Amino acid sequence: MTRPAEQPDVRPSRLSRDEIEANFQDLHPPLGRSEALIEADRCYFCFDAPCTAACPTGIDIPVFIQKIRSDNVRGSGKTILGENIMGGMCARVCPTEVLCEEACVRNTHEEKPVEIGLLQRYATDPIIDSGVQLFARAAPSGKTVAVVGGGPAGLSCAHRLAVLGHNVVVFNRDEKPGGLNEYGIAAYKTVDDFAQTEVEYILSIGGIDVRNNVALGEDVQLRELIDAHDAVFLGIGLSRANDLGIEGESLDGVVNAVDYIAELRQAEDKSTMPIGRTVVVIGGGMTAIDIAVQSRHLGAEQVHMVYRRGPDEMSASAFEQALAQTTGVAIHHRAPPNRILGDEHVTGVEFTSDGGRFVLFADMVFKAIGQQIGGFSEFAMQDGRIVVDAGHGTSIDKVWAGGDCVVGGSDLTVTAVQHGKLAAIDIDRTLRGAPDG
Length: 437
Prior knowledge:
With 437 residues, the chain is an alpha/beta fold. The protein is built from 16 helices and 19 strands. A 5-stranded parallel sheet has the order 4-3-2-5-19, with helices on one face. A 5-stranded parallel sheet has the order 7-15-9-10-11. The chain has a 3-stranded antiparallel sheet with strand order 12-13-14, with no helix packed on it.
């Protein structure tokens, strides 16, 4: 239990601007040419590569690594981007430690796996940075598809549809496209405005009209889109942060982590972001890790992350948990919150554990217990998400969906990209009247 402050201590500039900029440098600096060639040489180029089987987008990993080994970086990048148009961002944020790299045959007690994520970044960054378009559009189909959502699922769907010759209109609720890649990922994972650089590359294929600040259900209605377009894809994510449902949740200083992360990502000067001296984060997922680590980077002296279940049940990977702990975050398990303390401003949180109740005093509390979709009662739903078939078609004719908003969404960029790609392929098949399969 930490001691309560005499009064809440939440303010900006806990650290200098230079200190904060240093703290938010690239989490995984890119490989140089010699480093990439050495790492590529470690790959066994397995015929039935388990790393490829573990990749949600099905990238042929041995092939792209072999091309790096032969110094064909552009060919390597095309192999990646052909399956995952957001391969650059996924190289930065994908939990490779539980996907391709965990499956790597070199991942043993004696040695580390091939650094597939860093090799993927090595291959894709030069293409995306240069803006050289590797893909050409097919002959115009005369069809138009509305894509709702400018995040990974929506942009992936839009790009594949454009390549297939369809015209696409993207309706994006935010000021900029990119979705969680732009607004929801820790700033130290995607530096130098990479999210927008990648978006610009995706849109450079042509045939994609992006309309920002347009929200479904407010500025445009689903029925309007169905009537005005040949097909509709929903990549709307999970827009509502879950509430704790406990006493004191409305006190000043109790903040939704996703809202704070979005504001931090858009801040030109991160030292202007207010942060508490002592911070409590409630949750056990990637968002909880991101806000906990960034709180420390902004100058919080103590950060406590509290999860209601055990460590094995946390959705944050072991790597992310270790990152938080080595950054100075204390992680507490099996302690659901009971109530938030304070009169007008939060002063702490009372938790329940096997040993009884305990209090962690804090002048700032972040809620990071997940999100849910908005009201879409017209769809077949399961556990608060839209039900889709194998081609990502919904229960409504002419409407497909993918990403976090559907059953099977894993809150990962790479999964959302695959959903968008599969939906685009199925939309194309349907619009052209092709038979199933």
